[in-house]
Specification:
alpha+beta; Alkaline Phosphatase, subunit A; 2 domains; nine-stranded mixed beta sheet; four-stranded antiparallel beta sheet; 15 helices; globular; binds zinc ion
Length: 530
Amino acid sequence: MLAGNESEFCCALCDVTMRVEHPRTIVIGLDSLDYRLVERWSLAGELPCLRQLFETCPTVKLSTPSRVLQGTVWPSVLTGVGPGRHGLYLQTQLRNGTYSLTDRFADHVRLKRFYQYMGDAGLRCGLADIPCDSPVTDMRGLQVVEWATEFRFWRYQTVPRSFARYIRLHIGENPMTTHRNSGDSQESHAELCASLETSIRMKAKLGRHLIGRKDLHLVFCVFGEAHKAGHWLWKYFDETHPDHESSPAVLKSGVLSSYKQIDRALAEMLELVTVDDNLIVFSDHGMQPAYRGEHLIDLILEKLGLLEYGERPAPQTAAGSAPRLSTRARQRFINAKLAVKRRLPQAILSGLNRNKNSFPELNWRKTRAFSLPTDRNSHIRINLRGREPLGIVDPGSDYESLLDQLEAALKALINPRTGRAAVEEVFRVRSLFPGERAEDLPDVAVLWSAEAPIDEVSSSQLGVIRHPIRELRSGNHREEGFLLARGPNFKESRGAYRGHILQIAPTLLHLHGLAIPDEYEMRPFDDILR
Ligand SMILES: [Zn+2]
């Protein structure tokens, strides 16, 4: 329970003359809470609040674009459209028309967020830490961006700005706002556990403040702490993980603790949700061991004869290419690229500097396919004529047959640890996600099998390719999310349903009687709505 009289939070920012007509909508996002872990720990009695919700609400298993491009989930939640339309999938993306990498921020998405449609209709929203969001200064209500999220596409800001002062005075300074590096030692990970616990307590307090106000039609509050715990602490509880090591209880139970603390926070927030409110609790996708073969992708492309190294930095616009790199230089390049990738999840947004990273030293006259930065799946870009400065692959049949060749070669790779395929799926991203921003995306995404570590792969075509590597983050995402809902507009049912993350935005508009915008790609969750 929280100390003090919460009505004192009704400050100058609260429209005390206004009392929202029911039903309000309360959305609590549990970023990257894994369904399988939630199920296991709920049944074991560790997560009583979530267990009670599962026992009383319809459960929707959510499909997401995470299987293809995991960074696209939250921009899709915000805009109701897929990545081919919003164009944001990672903090570091290729700048179209160049061979330069550039940092991308939340404002790379130029589409209207669902809550802006609500604002246009005169509805007031209280938004806390929706990932990949940026401040909308003319919105009605309150907005908190990047106070405590797992990854940053903006800097910490509030709307109105005075709300930040209010949060500092009445809730506190969240240690995750300035958290930049989760480290690689048990000491740093123990510090992370303490910061996450503090952050969850503070987020519950902020959530209670928003739900306790009477002037908001929608409250949307997201917990990112279990996301961080899943990435960094996975190895401590998963005894089958190759980096599992003996560790103190605080680390061994780090992931479970973050789930239990969030469950308690959820219970505290639900105390303020009335029977007249609609409630949605959801997780956008899950977590599993971080097994993948991304570190092998450049070696594979090189062996396939699709990628050649040069000696000088690549030209940024049309110009000549350069001779090949020596083996040492090539290894230097691979190491540098991996270092960039390791840094990605910790990318720092200080003052929104748009850093321009120069792209690999490749011989563009002979390179047909090259890899892009990623935080899980391998991302491959085709050196397409007319799109890339020195493109050599013709659009049409040349492009399609190259994708066929890549898919066949990748799917034939075996992980000797299992004797089974090392690659689960090869996605043709532009076909899956068409739209005006499709060129912002990789052409191909490679989903590696996460059933076992991948130190080497082999096939009759490529022989053995070996390059063991240790991942700093021992957990990474899997696709499945889930959603629970109750309230006057939802069916009272314990049924199991299937849905998609793109149905969240239209459902929120529908709950408030608003038309579904033409650009939205999916309908509301009709199966669970009355
Ligand atoms: Zn993540």
